[in-house]
């Protein structure tokens, strides 16, 4: 068999129509159970990913705001982008920080749980009391 036969054979099989049996949906598979350790790791991963996503979106929003204000300043007057740079950077940073603030709440939800509050109370009870303050 020469090389031209191989090329034509693969070209016809690649473009072949899909049969009806291949298009039928399969039954949804059950979600696999996880252990306590992997559940904790999954929760940590979910919260940190959410927080990092918020921070990166806030940085992107702040940078786009800076660039649009820089371009507007540059059109207003000669060297306007350089003259207004401190003000434009400050406003963009303020917008970025304001948008990134909810990320702190996402991370704090990792630590602030009923189990962790109980553990902190147990640790505090184990500490000796300080005279004159109890």
Short description:
The chain is an all-alpha fold and 134 residues long.
What does this structure look like?
It is built from 7 helices and no strands. It has 134 residues and is mainly α. The chain has a domain at 62-124. Helix 3 (36-76) runs antiparallel to helix 6. The longest helix is centred in the middle third of the chain and has 41 residues, at 36-76. It is flat. 4% of the residues are buried. The model has no long low-confidence stretch (mean pLDDT 79).
Provide the helix percentage: over 70%
Contiguous runs where pLDDT drops below 50 for at least 5 residues = none
Instruction: Report the C-alpha radius of gyration, rounded.
Output: 30 Å
- The DSSP helix count reads 7
**What is the N-to-C succession of helices and strands?**
HHHHHHH
Structural class: mainly alpha
First CA to last CA: what distance?
A: 95 Å
User: How would you sum up the major sheet?
Assistant: none
User: What sort of overall outline do the alpha carbons produce when their principal axes are compared?
Assistant: flat
Strand content: under 5%
Number of strands: 0
* Mean pLDDT over the residues: 79
Main features:
single chain, 134 residues, mainly alpha, 7 helices, 75% helix
Write the layout of secondary structure elements.
Blueprint: H1 3-14, H2 20-23, H3 36-76, H4 80-83, H5 85-100, H6 102-111, H7 114-126
């Amino acid at each position: 068999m020469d090389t031209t036969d191989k090329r034509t054979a693969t070209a016809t099989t690649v473009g072949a129509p899909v049969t009806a049996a291949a298009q039928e949906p399969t039954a949804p598979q059950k979600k696999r159970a996880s252990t306590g350790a992997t559940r904790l790791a999954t929760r940590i991963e979910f919260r940190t990913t959410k927080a990092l996503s918020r921070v990166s979106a806030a940085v992107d929003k702040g940078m786009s705001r800076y660039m649009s204000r820089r371009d507007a300043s540059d059109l207003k007057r000669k060297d306007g982008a350089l003259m207004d740079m401190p003000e434009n950077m400050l406003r963009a940073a303020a917008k970025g920080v304001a948008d990134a603030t909810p990320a702190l709440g996402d991370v704090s939800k990792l630590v602030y749980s009923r189990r962790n509050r109980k553990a902190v109370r147990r640790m505090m009870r184990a500490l000796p009391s300080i005279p004159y303050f109890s």
